[in-house]
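Dear H.,

Thanks for agreeing to be a second pair of eyes. The structure we're designing against is below in token form, covering all 151 positions.
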């Protein structure tokens, strides 16, 4: 039996359409650490960014099977935004929080594991160059296990 394709692109499009049909403002929560993600880094907080993707807020919105792409202004500066499907954590309405957090899918886990592995190598290298402290540090929590709602 052939493996099934990820359902995230289909669910994302369906939720987007549903929110727009109900005159709500769709926002996506994005994991900015996923490779290929192009977002304005100065607005990333705790590895995530929340973006308004309503038709009136962005230009040339394309929701495809592999990515979301659009142009938007950040601080008055136009930028092209590219969001691989693996980077989309959730979609919800600004007005009432209606939406969903996406389940982790096997097709997207490989990218997440490589990102986490890459980050841990960078962290270890940074620790080696700094003066080591007496108290051990707690391990970094997983990035995908939470959703921060910004209203």
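And this is the sequence the design step returned. I haven't edited it by hand at all.
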């Amino acid at each position: 039996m052939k493996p099934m394709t990820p359902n995230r692109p289909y669910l994302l499009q369906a939720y987007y359409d549903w929110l727009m049909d109900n005159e709500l403002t769709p926002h996506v929560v994005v994991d900015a650490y996923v490779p290929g993600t192009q977002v304005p880094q100065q607005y990333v907080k705790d590895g995530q960014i929340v973006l308004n993707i309503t038709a009136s807020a962005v230009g040339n919105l394309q929701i495809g099977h592999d990515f979301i792409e659009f142009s938007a202004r950040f601080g008055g500066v136009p930028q092209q935004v590219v969001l691989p499907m693996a980077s989309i954590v959730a979609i919800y309405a600004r007005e009432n929080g209606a939406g969903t957090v996406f389940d982790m899918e096997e097709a997207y886990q490989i990218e997440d594991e490589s990102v986490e592995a890459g980050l841990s190598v960078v962290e270890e290298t940074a620790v080696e160059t700094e003066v080591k402290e007496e108290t051990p540090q707690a391990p970094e929590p997983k990035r995908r296990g939470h959703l921060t709602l910004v209203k």
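Two observations from my side: The longest helix spans residues 106-129. The two ends are 44 Å apart (CA to CA).

Warmly,
E.
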